[in-house]
Amino acid sequence: MRPFEYLRVSDAASAASAIGGVPGAQFLAGGSNLVDLMKEDIERPTRLVDIRQLPLRQIQRSRAGLSLGALATNTETANHPLVRENYPLLTQAIVAGASGQLRNMATNGGNLLQRTRCNYFYDTASPCNKREPGTGCGAREGLNKIHAVFGWSDACVATYPGDMANALYALDASVRVRATDGRERLVPIADLHRLPGDTPQRDTNLAHGDLIVAIELPVASAEFARHCHYLKVRDRSSYAFAMVSVAAALQLEGGTIRQARVVLGGVAHKPWRSAEAEAALVGQRADEAVFAKAAQAALSGARPLAHNGYKVELGQRSVVRALMRAAQWV
Predict the structure, then answer these.
(1) Euclidean distance between CA atoms 182 and 260, whole angstroms
(2) Cβ(68)–Cβ(107) under 8 Å?
(3) With a threshold of 0.90, does the pTM exceed it?
């Protein structure tokens, strides 16, 4: 463990002051990802700004729909009656995401910002542009079974590992962010994470010192509450990251699909929402044949690497299965 400065703050202004002028400073909340990365000598913050005392744990109704405090834990969020009743897809995704112990510690804001689980990223003896820009991508020509089939670049083929964000993409959530100057802005969640391009070291479009304050869920997305399903396919049924996951949500009227959401996880540098699959579903009958066509559309643009071609068929089968369960679930 490298030496670092530790500061505990109790209000947003103090947090901004503590982190804004220090390039190596980072926020600390639950620490379930950051502390591990520090132990592995991957993250090397010069200052940790502990924000756990900030009043950002509320989960409450808002004008837009439902506001989830950034410091509410994953457990508090998944179990909250308003979430379970109106946005059960989010509850399913969070419960699929980690062990109970981790969910008790992990916060909503931190969950969105977790870093990749690429083996080369974690191996400091291997080249990794995400960890050390300019050193190369070990996974590009190496063992890439768990890596991306969408949106990758020659600089990085890593995937985003989270589950909660996949559901939030399907639910058209937004993220409320506070800048160091005190101004707040609302960022559509689809604009939060980035594809790797030539700068894979940047996971999100947040600036240094930006603080996630809350996650906003719109009222309209509660229309998916009756027909949704989160499917996570992994090497073992216990705690593990997804080979492929699918957040599926449907709005049905007399057996016809009026709205659809299909988001894949474990396949790209960010949650991958498939406009092609959704277009193939809207206006169609909710049956397996239609779901199969949507699944083909969802994976039609995939670019497998040497060892992850299985994700194409697995992804198609997973989309069909998730949609079938969503259509039947009430």
Answers:
(1) 37
(2) no
(3) yes
